[in-house]
Structure formats: structure tokens, C-alpha cells
Amino acid sequence: MNFDFSDDQKLLRKTAREYLTEHAALSVCRAVLESDAAYSETLWKGIADLGWLGTTIPEAYGGAGFGHLELAVLAEELGRVLAPTPFSSSAYLAIEALVQFGSEAQKQQYLPRLARGDLIGTFAHAEKAGHQGPRGLATVFADGALRGTKVAVPDGDSAHFAVVTARDGDGVVTVLADLSGVGVERQTVRGVDGSRSVAVLHFDAARAQRLGQGNGWALATQLLDRAAVLMAFEQLGGASRAFELTREFCLERYAFGRPIASFQAIKHRLADLYVEIELARSNAYYGAWALSNDSPELGKAACGARASASDAFELASQEMIQLHGGVGYTWEFDCHLFYRRAKWLASILGSASQWRENLMQRLEG
Amino acid sequence: MDFNDTPEEAAFRAEARAWLDAHVERLGPDERAVGLAEGRTTPGGLKRAQEWQAKKADAGWACITWPKEYGGRGATAIQSVIWNQEESRYKTPANIFGIGQGMLGPTIMVHGTEEQKARYLRPMLRGEEIWCQLFSEPSAGSDLAGLRTSAVRDGDDWILNGQKIWTTGAQYCKWGMIVTRSDPTAEKHRGITYFIVDMQAPGIEIRPIKQINGTSGFNEVFFSDVRVPDRNRVGAVNEGWRGALTTLMNERHSIGSGAAGGPDFNDLVRLAKETEWDGHCALDDAGVRQRLAGFYIRLKGLQYTGYRTQTALSHGVTPGPESSIGKLVGAPLRQEMAGFAVEMQGSAGALMDATFAAQEGSWQQSYLSSPGLRLAGSTDEILRNIIAERVLGLPPEIRVDKGLPFKDVPTGPRNG
After folding, report:
1. Are strands A161-168 and A121-124 parallel, antiparallel or unpaired?
2. Which of B15, B220, B239, B251 is an active site residue?
3. Beta bridge partners of B137
4. pLDDT tens-digit readout, A11-30
5. Residue B175, strand partner residues
6. Which domains occur in chain A, in start order?
7. Residue of A nearest to B397 (CA)
8. Could you tell me if A256 lies within 8 Å of chain B, comparing CB atoms?
């Protein structure tokens, strides 16, 4: 039984943590939140220079040729520091889409620049509030042109291109659209987490090329499954860090003559939170296994990983504020950085309730 | 990341499976192992359990983690996991010897005299003598050290008076291990002595306790001037708490679920499919689907946490603290699932008749049985304290009875 990361992967974790401890203090996240910047360009460049973007890109396309387990490790470390960069959009969505479904020409065109961080990619899917299903897709792709609106596109303002889902006749397709091309209008919109950006994209006869073959909805589903697992590790990182900071605070904060961590109500809440995070970790690990083994279990595993990680990080961030007391509610304290990020991550890629419904369909399938 | 056995583990598993294949029938795909309660209470269940235990003992498959000198194989923790995994796939009687073999035998190995080890361990391993644990009392459950059953020295013997409670199997056990109050003037942890007691000794009265689910798995055991020879003392006088801790530590060492029996997630989905809600099945209802998915994800979280623990054991490493969450999560989850299953049944959820109730009333039974799991073997609340203190390193509870002679510790509201 080897249901754990390898020693090499653990070493990668160690070096990633060291780098991010030095270069991604929470003040970096806060700086993006408090400014108009879409992301931290310094941190982005540093990450790119380390080659992290190329983790799952084959060497032939300028990547490091590692795998999803390594990417999961990096995802968790980036999640711990609430890294304010487009890493998830590029690495878990755009790069994943190209490596899995791209043609040779598309891989050559995009992957090397994605690996270097010169290009940022994303995935444009949801069109309005609610659970996005194939029937509700209004964006249309016809004669090489894309028409429609996508909302809540992560990094939609900084990305150079996007994988977009659209209706094609009776079916669904996924296409690659150059976001700086004619017919694309981007609106950066205010998000619940100002340290990450979301945009609304309007396509009006924008040129796009088909990505992948066959049923586009099935392809989009696969892409979402894969991204969900990787995102679950970011959520796990955020939840763990929120938990650790909260625990430390409770040990240092005194009331009634003793640390508040000595009050049983607080001990029990922290124990419960610990348990939720561990369950989410176990579900995420299973997702990582399924992803790295291309297992037919991936669909169910992704649902479990995402739903439990979303719930765990949301809970951790709520408890973080509550257990900090009044100061947890101030702008000055870091609690709200986690609170915002937890909600943002729980929303992008679809909510936990959507993924629970997906799970039931897969169990019945 | 994979689920593979190491070559050594694979070989061990194959050896176990080969022996089991030769001696007992394998469970069919839809069959379930005999539950513990069934094993204890069905007529002939005890005898079958003892026969199976003897068979295993003769072949070296009983108590495999015990040292060879006591009849075991000196197996590692991971080998024990593998053996349990394999054995659970066969139509064996339930293992009713777990308390003795899992906790009390190991206690005797650490704290017992050579005479005690020679006399008691082999019959325990073979299932010839069954053991019970006499720990909790009406006034001492979570606060076990607050126990009051007294032990007073009388020549070469001790005289025991008092009452134990929640004693599983007392009615068919040959021996018990009992923690007693031997010095009420000492601070509570320092006046405890541990004994082996003959369950047939004069002065012992066993009364079954009826549980809310109607069965009587455990008992009250009354001690009226019960004479126990000093040679049955385990550990030094007034230092029995040390031995008790060893016993309790072994209680926590089981990973993976012992088949608790009862309906499971697949049964719940089947129930949702078969239950009609105003023209469509409950399984089509969005709310039902959300709850079911939630249960599945939590159950899987537990299962995968078990894999992480097993990985640690496989690598010869002490399992991480996440291995302590199983019962705290699993027990309330069982109650929630049963409660929801009954809820789905609407008014008919009030039925428990095997003929009329859905799935033979098994969910109603599970609902009635489930509160016990949140209480036995450490309550949910104690488990949270343990996680908080030992895993998270948070400060211990303030103890108002610390340093007080036991006789001065408050035990009820003050009068007047």
C-alpha cells in the first residue's frame, strides 16, 4: 500500500515551501487584493522561472515531463500561501486541455510558451448563475466563429487565450479562442476575492479553432474533473494553513487567565476542523491517484475531492474568523484573505452541490 | 501512489488466503460477514467461534501479532491488517475474543508475572477461555480513574466490593480483568490496583443490561465480598493505573472497520430507489441526492484515511494522527445515515416490523443501535479531547480533582 506521495515528491514539497515562505508571504496576496493588479507579476515570474508551469508538460514541448502528483504537491503549496497568480487557470485548465486533447500543431503553438509563463490560458465555461449544464449553453460556435458571453472566467482579464465551451449545431464543442483577437471584449469584474481575478468575456464573431474531437461536453467534463482534483489540493493547502494559523492564535490569545485554546468548546471545534481537513485530504489523495493513473474512477474521485475540499476550506475560513474573535473581522488581519479565497475556489469550477449531483449521476451511471 | 502490496506482503497475503481457502468457505459477492452481536447471541454461536479459534490456533493463525512464545507469530502490524482483510472475506464466525486477545492479553504480557503469562495466555489465544474487561462503573466512565470498586487486603487475598458496568460478555467469560480502588486516601491515579478475577467466584452477580435496541450485549457485574488471591494481581499494589493505560492504549490500535454489520450505503441508495415520493422515487429528489452524495463522500474519506494508515504500517512507520479520526467520524455518520433512511420512509418510517417496514426495518434497527457506537470505547467528546490534546497539542483540561485524596473528590451536587 503506497497511498502517499513519494520521497521525491515530498522533497519537491519541501523546496516549494521554502521558496514560497520566502517569496509569498501573505502580504503578497494582500498587495494584489488592495491594488488594481490582476496578479503578482513578481511571483508569477518566479514560479515560471522555477519551471512549475511545465510540471505536466512533456519535455518535447518545453516542459519538465513530470506528472500530476508533482503538480498536486505544488498546488497544495501554492494554496497554503494563497498565491495570487493565474497558476491554476494556466496549469490545471489550459495546459491540461492542450496536453490531453490538443492536436500536435496546437501543442507546438501553445505549450512551450505556457511552460515559460509567457502565455496565460484559462477555461471559459459558465454563462450565468446556477449549475452549468449542456442544455443551458447559449454560446455558439459556427463557421469558425464564436458568439456568446461567459461569466466568472478565472483570469479572464490576464489570459491570452481560453478554452471555451460552445454549442455547435446539436452538440457541444470546446474551442481555443485568442482573447486578444477581434470580436473579444473583456470586462474585469469585481470578485469576492480581489487577490484573484475574474472576468466576463463577450464573444462576437471571434475567431476560434476546435480543440479535441468528439463530444465536447464529455471533453469539458473530463477537463473539469482533472482541474477539480488539482484545485482540491489548493483548497487543502489553504484550509491547512488557515487551521494552523488559527491554532497558533488560540494558543497565544489569553482570556479569563488562560489561553483560549484551553477552553473545551474551542478544543472541540479545532478537533472537528482537523477531522474535516483530514477527510478532505484523503479524498484529494484518491483524486490524485485516479488522475495520475488515468483511472476510470476519476469522475467519482474528482467529485469527492472537490466537494470535501470546498467544504473543508470554507469551514476552516469561517472558523478562522470566529475563533479570532473581533479582530478576525478586521481588514487588517489575514483571516479574510482565507475567507475570500475559500469562497472563490469553491465557486470557480462549480459549487459543491453541483459536484455532489455529478457524483450521484456517476454512481447511477 | 498505488495500492500494491510489497512482495513480502503479497506473499503473506497469498499464504493467508491459501490457508483460509482450505479451511472455510468464502463469502459470496452479496453476502456479509457475521456481525459481532449475532456471533455472541445466536445459539451455538459461541461454540462455533471457539471451534474456529482453535482451528486457527493449531495452524498458527490465531493472535498473529503475539510473540511466538505465547502462541502467536510475531507478525507486524501490516501483516495483522492483511490477515484481517483476508479473513473478513470468508464465512467465519464473528471474533468474540477481541477484548481478551486484543487488550487484556497484551496487558498481561507487559505487566503480568511469568506465572500469569504461562497460565492465561495460551488458553486465551485458543479461545478456550474468554475474557471480559471490568473497567467502567456507574460513576466512572469517561473518568475511569474515578472508579470506586474497593479492594481491601485480607491475608493472601483481596476482598472486592462494588459494581462494574457495560461489561461485554460477562455472562460467558471465564476471566475478567478489573481495576479497583485499593487506597482511597491517595490521589485518584495512585490508589488503583489491577487484578485478574475468576468470573465464577462466589459473590459475583451478573445482570444483563437491556439496550435501547432491545438486545443485551453487556452487563452490570456486582461484587459482594469477592475474594481474589494476591497472585492474580497484575502489576504493583496501587500502581494499577499503569496497566489500565496499557489496556486502553491497545483499544485504540485497530485500523479499518471491524464489520459493524447492518445496512450500508448501497442499501441506502437501493432504499431511495424503491421509496416512492409522490409519483417518483426518492432517488430522483435533488435534496435526497445531495444527502446521499454527502454520505458517500464522507464514507470514502474514512476509507481512504484507512489507506493512509495502512501505508504507514506498510512502511514500518507509526501511523499519523489522522488514524485517530475513524470512530469520531464513523459513529455519528452511521446514526445520520440511519436517521435519514428512516426519514425517507415518511410515516412508514415509524414501522419496524420485518414484514412491513422497508428493508426489513434494518434502518430502524440501525438507528436504535447507533447511539451506542458514539459512546462505547471513548465517547465522541472524549475523542475530541484526545485529538485536541494529543494530536493538536492544545492545553489539557483543568482538573479540579488533581492532588486531592480520592475520598475527597466531589461526586455529586453538594447538599444544603
Report:
1. parallel
2. B251
3. B140
4. 999 999 999 999 999 999 99
5. B131, B198
6. 7-119 (1.10.540.10), 122-215 (2.40.110.10), 218-364 (1.20.140.10)
7. A262
8. no
